[in-house]
Amino acid sequence: MGRRRDGALPGATAERRLSSITGGRGSAEPAEGPAATGRPAPAEPLETVRELRPDTGDGAAPAGTPDQARLWHVVLSVAGEPIGLSELRAGLERLAYDHSFFLTARYAADHAEIRYWEQARDLHDAAAIALRLWGEHKATANLPPWEIVGLEVVDRPTYHKRVAEGFGEPPQRPGGGVQPY
Question: Are 162 and 82 in a shared domain?
Answer without folding.
Answer: yes
